[in-house]
Amino acid sequence: MKMLDVTLNGQIQQIPQGSNVRYMLDEMKLGKQAIVYLNGKKLLQKEYDVVLLQPFDELRIIKPLAGG
Amino acid sequence: MFPDGHILEINLSNQSIQTIDLPGETYRLYPGGSALATYLILQQMVPGTPALSPDNVLVFAVSPLTGLPISGISRLVVAAKSPLTGAIGDSQSGGFFPARLKANGYDAIVVKGKAENPVYILIDHDEVTIRSAESIWGKVTGEAEAILRQELGDDDLEVAQIGPGGENLVSYACILSMSSRANGRTGMGAVMGSKNLKAVVLKKGTRCEPSDTEGFLSLAREAKDRLKHNDAVSGLADIGTAGDLAAFNDIGFLVTNNWQSGFSGEDASKITGEAMKATILEKRDTCFACAVRCKRVVSIPDQVDAKYGGPEYETIATFGSYCGIYDLETIAKANQLCNMYGLDTISCGATISFAMECFEKGLIGEKETDGLALGFGEAESMLTLIERIARKEGAFATMLAEGSKQASLRIGKGAEAYSMSVKGEEMAAHMPQYKPGLGVVYAVNPFGCDHQSSENDPLLMMPEDSQERIWLGKLGILHGEEDSYGLDDYKVQFAFDSQCFYSVLDTLCLCQFVWGPTWQLYGPDDIVKLCKVGIGWDTSLFELMRVGERRINMMRVFNAREGFTKAEDKLPARMFEKLKNGPSVGIGIDEQAFQTAVDHYYQMAGWSAKTGNPEEGTLRRLSLGWLIQS
Q1: Which ipTM value was assigned to this complex?
Q2: pLDDT tens, position by position, B356-396
């Protein structure tokens, strides 16, 4: 399996080539309740399944913390 | 047509019992829960009445929707003047008691006066009796409930009761059903205790039927499918309310050592929801008709009994990171003690953490604490102190039984700076430094710094096509944010409008984990639909938002009558200091910006810039002109 490097929340990480944003969310055990910035641009939720990650992409993924 | 309300009025002084019908046209303005309760209190309580006087008016209320078989619909409001704050008191709980109250035919119970000797109220539809509570007075909740079942020869009872904490008038005593579901905040258990009322006991009721069976069942059946596709609520079901505890710590906003820090380091990993699931969790429990099953039940052989439920996020934080204690078994014991003795876990844990800071800073020593070493992390001292507070045993515990603010005034020496409270109520475990919009509501909310009275700021960061933002858009909240720290007019509008919406939930007695404006299973449009198929109420989101706003304004008028002004709408000074360690180092709320936000909130709410209380025009707009005359 070919791997590529991306930066996730400041840390370099290797992921399989062809991975989408959803892959990263699954790795982080996050569902769709997450905020994803790809190279500084906030993605829409509908893009999580379709945007393929490229080498050296910079991802910032935030879980919005509510309460109870 | 809006259904009439059925109010049971009981005067314990003269043992009178009567049922009053509230006409549907009036009930529609105050359709249940704390709106109905506040309406009844405003009508019946003389301003200036002491909270623990027989003349305080204690109201248990549900809504016209309560008892219908759908998820998140069994919530009980208990309200009265609060002994903790002197303002309106208000609290919510789940379980089965709320549905059972409606199934017995009542929308509210109003309790006035004071019984000569301890009593409980037994309700079996129209048959209502006031009975001696001699055999259960002084008993902890689990024991009292068992005695009641045995004495009445009935295992199918629902019991809302106080423990010894309420009997002893601890200012933050709560009311419990199932010995685990608490009307926790603002000391409603003490009001009950002041009336010599130990319990309200409900016999089996009559099933509540929706007005449109087919439409209702269709909506109700959607819950399971919605749950399957909703990560937030299914996570809540799986891990419980403590599911975000680790994440709060990771970003530096887990209340630590009485709010001196937001970071507990690696210790936080020992008290997470995941850690509880892996260790002491026995099972998940539920409320009437609810598919979510978010309640935790824990047990530790010979130490913690499953009948007292399990600690939720707030309880884990207040007895855990607030107090520097990172041991789930200790926290589970503290939770059990509070549920046995009937104490609010938030105020109790926070008051003890206040005392710990006073001890560590040398304001008090073992002489003042009646021999307890009380630094942060002193688990045994904390557990001992909970029991002493409930029993008001010794001068120190008796002082802490009045809450951290009153205790700070007695200690003096600058201790007031360590009481993390608003209007005298201890702050729940959501840091305004991370959620300043919530902080504004902490400051202005009529019944104190409640964490369930508005939406959480970070949800504004969600992408535009998310359920969260689409549902907020239904409330006219359209402006998203790139981080959670802003305090501009958009944020204030978010705080105010979401507060009005949450006020609707606390009026209709809907669970905020199932019905809500963002991540929940059912959203704003669904609530309008529920009203139609549930009780035939052809309403709109506009009318419901008015209902929510009306409730807040009634509460604010109550407070104004008790002498409250904007002077009490203040956060502790510590919120404006920069955090000193961890990932949130350097973050603090800008005090000037915060005051401007509060001023803008008053403008948006139609409240006086001078007093912070509702303007006459606001009251007239909300059909509350009758309060101007009063």
Answers
A1: 0.96
A2: 999 999 999 999 999 999 999 999 999 999 999 999 999 99
CB contacts, 8 Å: B241 with chain A: 68
Neighbours of B263 (CB within 10 A): 24
Of A42, A46, A66, the CB nearest to B458: A66
- Chain B residue numbers with beta carbons less than 8 Å from the beta carbon of A22 are none
Partners of B512 on chain A (C-beta within 8 Å) are 68
Looking at the DSSP bridge assignments, the partners of residue A37 are A42, A60
For the domain B436-629, what is the CATH code? 1.10.599.10
Q: Give ranges for CATH 1.10.569.10 in chain B.
A: 255-426
Nearest-Cα distance to chain A for B245, in Å, is: 9
Nearest to A66 among B234, B253, B456 (CB): B456
- Does CATH place domain B255-426 in 3.30.450.20? no
Contact B192, B169 (CB under 8 A): no
The side-by-side arrangement of strands in the sheet containing A41-42 is A11-16, A3-8, A58-62, A35-38, A41-42
- The helix/strand count (H/E) of chain A reads as 1, 5
The SS3 call for residue B562 is: coil
For B561, the enclosing helix (H) or strand (E) is helix B541-561
Tell me where in chain B the CATH 3.60.9.10 domain(s) lie.
Answer: 5-202
Q: What tens digit of pLDDT does each residue of B45-57 get?
A: 999 999 999 999 9
Between CA B299 and CA B50 the distance in angstroms is 40
Q: CB contact, 8 Å: A30 with chain B?
A: yes
Q: Which distant-in-sequence residues (6+ apart) come within 8 Å of B278 by Cβ? A: none
The 10s digit of each residue's pLDDT in A11-63 is: 999 999 999 999 999 999 898 889 999 999 999 999 999 999 999 999 999 99
% pLDDT > 70, chain B: 100
Q: CATH for A3-62, among 3.20.20.70, 3.10.20.30, 3.40.630.30, 3.90.550.10?
A: 3.10.20.30
In chain B, where does the domain assigned CATH 1.10.599.10 lie? 436-629
| Of residues A30, A64, A67, nearest to B462 (C-beta) | A64
- Contact list, B513 vs chain A (CB under 8 Å): 68
**How far is it, in rounded angstroms, from Cα B320 to Cα B598?**
31
CA distance A46 to chain B (A): 7
Name every residue whose Cβ is closer than 8 Å to that of residue B85 and which is 6 or more positions away in sequence.
B186, B423, B424, B425, B447, B448
**Per-domain residue ranges of chain A:** 3-62
How many Å apart are CA B463 and CA B244, to the nearest integer? 20
Does domain B5-202 bear CATH number 3.40.50.150?
no
Q: Are the beta carbons of B261 and B583 closer than 8 angstroms?
A: no
